[in-house]
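Hey, resending since the last one bounced:
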Amino acid sequence: MIRDEVVALVEKALATAQAAGALPEFAAPAITAEHPARPEHGDFSSNVALRIQGLARMKAIEVAEALRAHVPAHPAIEKVTVAPPGFVNFYLAPSWAAAQADAIARAGEAYPDLDLGGGRSAQIEYVSANPTGPIHVGNGRGAAIGSTLANVMTAAGYKVQQEYYINDAGTQVGIFGRTLYARYEQLHGREASVPENGYPGQYMVDVAQTIKDRFGDQYLRHPGEEADPAFGRLGIDIMVEGIRADLALMGVEYDEWYSERSLMAHGGPYDTVMAILKNQGQVVERDGATWFTSSDLGESKDNVLIRSDGAPTYYATDIAYHYDKFVTRKFDRVVDIWGADHQGHVSRVKAGVQAVGADPAALDVLLYQLVTLRRGEHIVPLSKRAGEIVTLKDVVEEVGCDATRFFFLLTGANQTMDFDLDLAKKQSDENPVYYVQYAHARIASVIAKAAAEGHTSEGADTSLLTHEAEQTLLRKLLLLPEVIEKVVLELAPHHLTHYAQELAGAFHPFYTQCRVIQADQPALTKARLRLLEATQTVLARTLGLMGISAPEQM
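The structure tokens again:
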């Protein structure tokens, strides 16, 4: 990453200036380099002089001048300047920037794999919606965030496992089973009432019909008898089949579908965790329930593990689940992606992780906010009628997988988002995913036309790429490694959509201002074709990280 090389130059300049007596000896803070807001201030800027002026007992501008004078030569840097009140600005050499077109094009899909993870294992668990209902629009946002983050972390050197946690045990599953059996009885002509707290949606009738179609009356019991517990589990399995199919429409595939029931098996993670907590004296009986003394670990209150009716809480199973992640399966890093309504659960899960001997700092919880569906100015109700919701499948089938993923990623997870269905279907520059994909398709078209006319980039002299639009585009191509790093460090995939739009925004002016195929200028044609190949590489890579296609025709 050229940014890191700039940081290294500043570090060397500081050490050299101190050795030469231009600056006094002191231990400096970590040095950083940023992109100035205005291009006339260079490609990178360091504010280190402002941060160490007190240590140096000199004015920041004087510190900056001392640093500038001792920056070693580097082929990527054309010049170094100082700007008030004490910034050290670096300007990339146009010839070096142009040469990167060749380097990027030759790297192809390997550009720009990083090694932030160093081969460490990371698990990303996301969506994990209760299988008592279909996947809805809000779940889709978590799906886009989670699967994109998995792609980026893999590119950054992590060994990533993607997991869906199936909540197939507990009270709600029991209610689901009773509701489903009532529908099943009704389909067989019996009088049966759905439980008051049951699930009223049409999908329950559909699942019951699926069971009837597959097994006939095999699961019917005598009137008044409860259903076989296997019946409810069968219904959950059918719901999970639907969830898999709906997520696959959006290009989401998991490495592991983890059953909550497996946690509760005799001698399994739940039993192990309860024994650990009891042996450590962190469990007390109070008011007929079993409590975890989480207040001893900094929580504001203790938390119930087992209710007075003997049923474990979600919190208890979550501790067991994370014990399995960290201790049994030994993931180095775990990322849970939850809806914002789980915010209050974060600190207590971390307390549970600490109690069972794992490192709570290795657990990151990314919370995402709600989605508002729109058609232009009009809000689309998320509930169509009693018990019916706008599903993820509804949205994907209307606007397509690519637009669905791109729009879900447009906004930072911590912000509520508007999803404009009409805009997502527009074939114009107003639609951000169309704008980006069209840039890729336009490049593919030019490269194909050049090949048909006998032009290639072989032997390109990239030093000819001196036009302002060419240089602007080149500098955008160099940013992808930084974007990948930022996504991983901040757990913020939305940076990819912003970068993709900026890159397309740099390409379109180049396309307008710099004619690529020029029969009378074969050398310039080759150079510009090489720049197109590099741009195509980076656009396709960026779209691919988001799970979005890079079309060659539109």
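The two ends are 33 Å apart (CA to CA).

Sorry for the duplicate.
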